[in-house]
Design brief:
This protein has helices at residues 16-27, 41-48, 74-83, 101-109, 122-139; strands at residues 7-12, 33-38, 62-65, 92-96, 114-117. The chain is α/β, with parallel strands linked by helices and 147 residues long. The chain has a five-stranded parallel β-sheet, with helices on both faces.
């Protein structure tokens, strides 16, 4: 089922340790991918809309979104992604420390594709990232990008 075409993933995460670990797990993974990282909600939207310094950014096939972001939180970022006709088809995986029911309901009401609470345990975190890779990059058929 694997494709030879690289999968482009956008990680929207402000925690450098989580970013580094996610990069390492994806780098060691079975799937050829490109992982781009932005560290706040404003940059995430600039990246996705190919504005300013992100004019040449490639549209991601998949977005991993933390909710607790500086400048613009993940709820607002998700709402803008899903309100944009060009961006709304990109699957968005919420990957956050919050297990609050209100956060879960809010993100699904804004059409998040799944909600994952980040484990605190390092090995469990690695397993979560590997599970994301296995499911979303191997099993799921992602939509083709336009232009």
């Amino acid at each position: 089922m694997k494709s030879n075409k690289p999968i482009n993933i956008l990680l929207i995460e402000d925690n450098p340790a989580d970013t580094r670990l996610t990069q390492e797990v994806f780098k060691d993974g079975k799937i050829h991918n490109t992982l781009n990282v932005v560290m706040d909600g404003e940059d995430a939207l600039l990246y996705l809309k190919k504005s300013d310094k992100y004019a040449n950014a490639e549209t991601p096939d998949l977005i991993l979104l933390d909710l607790n972001l500086p400048k613009k939180d993940g709820h607002a970022v998700l709402a803008e992604i899903k309100a944009d006709t060009k961006l709304r088809i990109i699957p968005v995986i919420i990957l956050t420390t919050s297990g609050a029911e209100k956060d879960i309901l809010n993100t699904y009401s804004h059409h998040a594709n799944c909600y994952i609470v980040k484990p605190i345990d390092l090995n469990q975190f690695i397993n979560v990232i590997r599970s994301i890779e296995e499911f979303w990059l191997t099993i799921v058929k992602l939509p083709k990008k336009e232009g």
